[in-house]
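Re: duplicated header lines in exported structure tokens

Our pipeline writes sequence and tokens for each protein into one text file. With two proteins the header for the second block appears twice in some exports. Here is an export where it did not happen, for reference. First protein block:
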Amino acid sequence: MQKIWYTLFLEERPSISLSLFRMVVALTVGLHLIPTFFHLEDTYLSTALKTYNSSFFPIWFLKLVGKSPDSLVIFFVILFCISCFSMFIGLFSYVSCLIMTLCCYYFYALNDFAIGHILTWDILMVTLFLMCCAPFQGDYFSVDCLLKGDPSAYKTRRPFYLQRLLQMQVAFTYFYTGLYKISPPAGNWLTDNPIYYLMNYPVEGVTKLFLLKDFLAVHPQLCNVLGLTILFTELAMPVLLFNPRTRLSAIYLGIVFHITLILTLDVPSIFFFLFPPQLFLFIHPDHVLRWIEQKRLYNQNAQRSILVYDGNCQFCRMSVQQLRVMDLFNTLNLLDFQRLDNIQTLHPKLTRELAHSQIHLIEPDGNLYGGFDVFRRLCFTLPMLYPLIPIFYFPGAGIVGPWVYRWIAKNRYLFHFNKVCKDNACFR
């Protein structure tokens, strides 16, 4: 029994999937809650119409939160925005998760009408609570791992209990949703035909106008088959997901189910943003790590891009160390030009003066990029920089970006205390 418990919950496995899921949770919560801040007088301030969820919170807590002055509400709004962004980028990941979760519970207790008293938000609150049960959501895909500077951070192994709990949550959410469909007062999907009713007598704001709606509206038997298929699939989901032989098919099935749900019914965005990524947590972390190692090995033997930097500059070395951490698939060959006798062997247009002034990237096809354009290219190579693609390619970034980069490169001695670069000596 002890061995089974260890295998299911305590065995150490790579935590990279959980680190990526942290970003999904922060994005989901932010997209759901931040829009409610646009009109605070109608949502959370003393002028708002409020309702309270006494089935989720104890009465004493609702009364305590209900006494909040408007200044405290505004404070929590600012605190939430900061902590949500910090959790997304992985800066002080665990503390940010705790603070963001506290803010979510506060706003939910303050006015569940503004959030929309819905089952999906309750599920999200449970997800946030589980995320607070472990301090290692920022092992990778985070600023925290960049600050540590460990290139092998993606291989960090942690006890599996948090990922297992998140797996159990989504699996049994399916099961209890199916169970609800055959339990009063929801009706009985075994003997009734709710899909047919939705197609013919839709409640306003529930059913969307989709391609096959009119077809299903005149085929009750097909609607009945669809309803029973959905019911039995939901009830069987825990078995399908936890069985290694059916797991991959169940993940695909769940993703198709949620896409269909979004396209046909007016359901909360949480279904789309949270549930499909949570299904990917069923993929064994060792399989994810093995896939990464295979890509790293392939790129190691292939012709890679060469990143040329100044090894005499501490700030440059620190930046390159962070790029080494971000280079998940081993796509870069990092080269200190100070160790080369003839730098033009790398590229005929590259001189020592140019290499002193800014970082350079030589791609396998021979194209040479320098400064800001290097990071533009790396955005498509390093997964941790993917979120910055809209920023680096935002209109006007091609004008402002190079200027900012040149200033940082010229004054990089300001960012560290290396005696070699005192008074910008390494730049000269």
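Second protein block, exported in the same file:
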Amino acid sequence: MKLSNGDQIPIEERDKKEVLGFGTAQTAPEQVQVYNPAFDVTPHKLITAIVTEKGLVRPVNKKNIKVVLSG
């Protein structure tokens, strides 16, 4: 699937129970409204670095990503 921008990425919505409690213990009132997205989409202009297990990529560009991930 090819999209023209991140606004078109479908966001999976997770079960509200994941944020209403812990295990079998309920920690939030029943009537509370919940929006529980599995992830969000961050506009590229707001990303100043990427943290990886191999190091920090900064500034974020193809060259620096290749250098950090190949090292």
